[in-house]
Design goal:
This protein is of the alpha+beta class. Helix content is about 20%, strand content about 35%. The longest helix is centred in the C-terminal third of the chain and has 34 residues.
Amino acid sequence: MKHTFLIALTLLFTSLSSAQTQDEKDALEFFWGEQDAYKTMVDIPEKWSNESAVIIYKNENYDFHKFGKNVTYKTSVRKRIKLLDKAAVEEFSEFTYTKRFRSSKGLSLGTRGNNIIGVKIIKPDGSEKIIDIHKDAVEVDGETKIAIANLEVGDIIDYYSYSIEPFKSTYAFGFDPVEKTLGEEYPILDYKLFFETENDFFINFNSFNNAPELIEIPTEKKNMRRYELTAQNIEKHKYERWFFPLVELPAYKFQVYFARSGKFENRAEAFLPEKEDVIKKTVSNEDILEFYDNVNPYGDLKHEERFLKKKTFANDAEKAIAIFYFMRHYYLTRFLEAYIAKDAEISTYPFGAYNDDARVFNEDVNFMRHFIAIMKDNKIKCDLIIAKKRYDGSLDDLLIQKNLNMVIKTQTTPPVYINSFGPHTTVNNFDPLLEGVDAYLLSATKWKYDNIKRITIPTTSFETNQTNKDISIDLSDDFKSISVSSVISYTGHKKQDQQYERFIYKDYVDEDYKKFETESFVDLVKKSKQDSYRQQFNAVIDKLREKQEETFKNSVKSEFDITTIEDYKYTINETGRFNFETPFSFTEEYTIKDELIKRAGPNYIMEIGKFIGGQIDLSLAERDRVENIYMGYPRSYNYQISLNIPEGYSVSGLDKLNKSIDNKTGAFTSTAVLEGNTLTINTTKQYKNNYESNKDWSLMMNFLNEAQQFTNEKILLKKG
């Protein structure tokens, strides 16, 4: 198994040369020099002797410095790991990394940074070998790889990754937030996190879930600041499905912000501490109000005013909903054909067709400010709901502004909620990861947000978030092929991912053009170009359809665990784009040949259980669970399978198709009824909540096991 470094472990380094650069020498001295206190550490505690590997030492460093307009950002990580079994040896026998990187920060986009790695092996007899990275690295398929030869059980691998990224900044600049658990897949004997900053760098940092605190270290310079966090004997963590590590495990979060003066500090997109030498650990109600006071409504409203002209609405809620869907079209879906035209090289500058009226909202916050502006123009007041997603922990632990999500709530009866902006987003639904969380409600006096209180965002039910499949099955006379016709629909949160996967732009932009009486891209260009453009767009659509069909066929094969399907057809019945509850529905038709049914003498055995698709098959390790269960949202899966029994055959084995497990965590029920020559099987699988305590894991396993077992059930079609 190849070992790939992620983010902090990304092995980015300088070009291959035979001689070491000064930066490489400095890095080697920093990690493995005379001051290395861990160079002789080889022992691990007896309690971890049966682990796959043990991290003897882990060290992460973050350095932030500036000189005039020049800023230097240094990050590094070192790990010293004892390998205790063959799996660990295999894991670290090959490293895959990206060879070069370009700065994405400040005013120096594309500036090349300097990245260095080092790897050495310590044998049980104490002998050491430093890997010659320049000599041994090779490029394969665009990746740079290095194989660690002669690695054995009992060896220690000691490696570091050191990145230096210079850039220029004359304004406020926020570095990417860092949010990590202390533990990882192997236990850690000794751990240290180290910070170094100076004036004009502001730090938000806090430890959570009983992680150690960040401690300030005295420095020799007044403008220089150093901090460290240390921990020992950190147990490993097994990353499992349905778990949010930052909610429960010891962790730390931080963000560093660079701002040269007071005016830039005021513009910062962050909750800054009062001074550079103060670590901000918490966010107050006053911080929230001060930050969101700058959410000012703005924008040219002439298009909305034209849309509303001569229209009447039953109430302000209806008007707000109509405006949202108009804006979704006018500032987004109206331009999708132009993007296609540019990507397909149909037109070099397609946005010119809109006569300088091509304003696209690329960020939710810009759309929301404009929506608030049109609400204000129509004297409809709006509140703001500010919340963190569930995987990021409690609202009381708020630290980083980027973790907040903003939702508009109109002061109408009923209220209208606006959560995000995309081609398929609808009103009155929250991001599922915001459901059930505590949030701040900001209300305004004369459009200034000056009141704040805590609320809890409601949670949808499994009845709202449904997958429904109505499957009709016919067998050929020779029993060698199965004709399937499925009407499939998705509602609630189950819908939007499917819309993105199953639509091409043509499936819904025409719907929007018709609804809002706007002209297509082709209608806007010169008449002399229209026929040519239509032909080119049709060619693009044909290619997209061809690719789409192949994707859908592979999806069916994966769902039923089969190798081939033929005669595939796909038809959209309803897009479901104008209401959260309205289903997205389509029909699939296809033929399965020589699979899921086999001959047994004069009879046939059919794998009928496969038609509810693949189910979760829990491994032995997953069954022994200690963590609580965090899922995206409650949901249900409902199947109706109708099989036409061929003339002259009866069916047996129906008793195994009737199952019922129903408890407070979820359910799996199935029934099989034979009426005439039609066998009808109904199954329902429910996840009733978005969270379950680990003490109820056995209840969840009960219905998960029953659903998985159903996929193995068969029926016998008995001749005569």
